[in-house]
Amino acid sequence: MSDRTLNGRERLTPSQRARRRFMSHRVAMASGAFMVALILLVLAWPIFSQPTFAPHLPQALTWAPDKLNDAQFHPPSAAHWFGTDALGRDQLARVAVGARVSLLVGAVGAGVSLIIGVLWGAISGYVGGRTDSMMMRFVDILYSLPSIIFVIVLITTLEVLVKQWMTKIFVGGAPEAVRLLFLFFGIGAVSWLTMARIVRGEVLSLRTRQFVDASRALGAGHAQLLFRHILPNISGVIIVYLALTVPSVILFESFLSYLGLGIQPPMASWGSLIADGAQQINPIRIYWWLLVFPAGVLTSTLLALSFLGDGLRDALDPRANR
Amino acid sequence: MYFFKRALYLIPLLLVISFLAFVLVRVAPGGPFDKERKPASPEIERNLKAKYHLDEPLWKQYARYLAGLARGDFGPSLKYRNHTVNDILLQGLPVSLSLGFIAFGFAQAIGIPLGFYTAVRRGQWADYGGSFLALLAVCVPGFVVGPLLIMWLAVKFHWFPVGLWETPWHAVLPMVALGLYFGGKIARLMREGMLNTLSAEYITTARAKGLRESVILWKHAFRLAVLPVLSYSGPLLADLLTGSFVVENIFQIPGVGVFLVNSSLNRDYTMVVGLVLLYAALLVVLNLLVDLSYSLLDPRVKHE
Fold first, then answer.
1. Which domain holds residue A106?
2. pLDDT per residue over A140-189, tens digit each?
3. Cα separation, B126 vs B132, whole angstroms
4. A68–B contact, CB cutoff 8 A
5. 3-class SS at A10?
6. How far apart are CA A213 and CA A210, in angstroms?
7. Residues from chain B contacting residue A251 (CB–CB below 8 Å)
8. Residue B186 in contact with partner chain A when CB distance is under 8 A
9. pTM value?
10. Tally of structural domains, chain A
11. Fewest 10 Å CB contacts: which of A46, B85, B141, B255?
12. Within a domain: residue A5?
């Protein structure tokens, strides 16, 4: 390489260095590969589940519903890798369909919390003064509330109301979409607090820096200063924290679905599948595959996401240089 | 003085919370008497509403509720007739609190040794294995651990009872299900704290003086390394007490948590507001106590 500094090391831009550090983090790379594979599986599932590929559709019942027996429960086999559930549906298909909801809620919920948190924190830190202390006091108050309890009360009470509005506005509108919307925005709306605090702290320290003064002297407006000059400088911190928000949002959704307040049948998410599996616990026959597979996929996803977050932090945190 | 002000500040906060919860459950469609003997005659429903003052305007109901609260009265439950909310909370609260405290002890008991051990064995296989276990614990939520424990240890091997809350034996599985996640969190904190302390200069000094490794670890390093765990313990206790309702649901433990979802779905107005207030009060008071304990433990922290 011709491009070398005095001490013989390659000259790299910060983003190249970050990419290199991330690539050398083997566990994080493996976790990234796992997540990519999972997302590809979810995206490709509509094709895989066509009858030509798989004769065992998730909806297809493999038993006679009029007979009272437990023949519909197939343990894992070559035909049904994850076994079949209480209605004789292929559990692998259910887990794949559940992954769609869980990952979607994770992504959208984290996105909502990202938008609210970054805007709130950036404005609070940038404007400063009395506005700042008011906005942060509000965050403090929300912090001290039991958010899970509030989300539960919110979902159980307001959902019917919103459903009524929706059916009035869109005639014959999709009521099951309401629950999904509630999950997206409800979970996002309670998980933005830490993001706001982090962003505010960073903006507070950046806005007095000289390059900000310089661009202000050159005539940059507030929006340009904030979005062009300050926020790109803290994107690393934001990305790292976003990566940590995704698993907690997924966990929150599966928790609500476990309680029966999340996704409703026939849709599925990992939480509702675990709840279904827990429902089938009985002293006569143990259908372990109903519990172990959704739980295993949920846990591996959470593990992979936190390894990914660790890797990103090591790569993007400038103090991790040593 | 500072804490006195903080404590006074809690009163309007709890008032706002009670108002929000009060309005929220009431604007929701449906009422507490929807599932009464169908078809309920309009007279019965009118009389029921009159009995619980539900026919009054909202502000009057809220004023009545606040007047009751001032006397420490959460009002009658609308679903569990002949029981006041106070009765139900008083019955369930000791169970919920003891479950929370047991799980707290369990989390500390597995978290601190694991974090200490992995930090001492840093970079060795014991560290990788132990740290992975701690991370795994953080990634397995209680509603996964609970059913798995029931399925294997209770149903298959009959080592533990499946549910309920009678003998100490009944408490083992709920304790693990509730505490495991937090144990992992504590282990990670403890490991971090230990590593930070071990790289401090006074530890190098102690080594240079030729002190025995066990003295260095236990007498000098541990005391400082455990501080982050201590400061996490307050929020942790609050999380355990407010988060225990899932575990209570799984193991059918007669705490207060089992009422949360059902009361909210049944539109049992007084129960919902009472529960929300109880949880919020627990959380804010515990947070206040944590802040108080900071200034007692660490003289550098001063509050204006």
1. 12-316
2. 777 766 777 777 777 777 777 777 777 776 655 566 677 777 778 888 88
3. 10
4. no
5. strand
6. 5
7. 141
8. no
9. 0.82
10. 1
11. A46
12. no
| Backbone torsions φ then ψ of B287, nearest 5 degrees | -60, -40
Q: Please state which CATH number belongs to domain B85-297.
A: 1.10.3720.10
Instruction: Give the angle A279-A284-B244 at the CA atoms, nearest 5°.
Output: 35
Model confidence at A322, pLDDT cuts 50, 70, 90, reads: very low
Q: How far is CA B37 from the centre of its chain?
A: 37
- Rounded to whole angstroms, how far apart are CA atoms B36 and B30? 12
Any domain includes A322: no
Domain contains A221: yes
Cβ-defined contact of B13 to A144 (cutoff 8 Å):
yes
The domain segmentation of chain B, as residue ranges, is 85-297
Partner-chain contact B260 A152, CB within 8 Å: yes
Task: Report CB contact under 8 Å: A148, B143.
Answer: no
- Which positions of chain B have pLDDT values less than 50? 304
Distances (CA, A) of B4 to A63, B10, B70, B107: 67, 10, 20, 32
A6 in any annotated domain: no
Q: How many CA atoms lie within 13 A of A64 on its CB side?
A: 4
Is the ipTM here above 0.90? no
CATH of the domain at A164: 1.10.3720.10
Compute the radius of gyration of chain A from its Cα atoms.
Answer: 24
What pLDDT digit, counting tens, does each position of B148-158 carry? 888 888 777 77
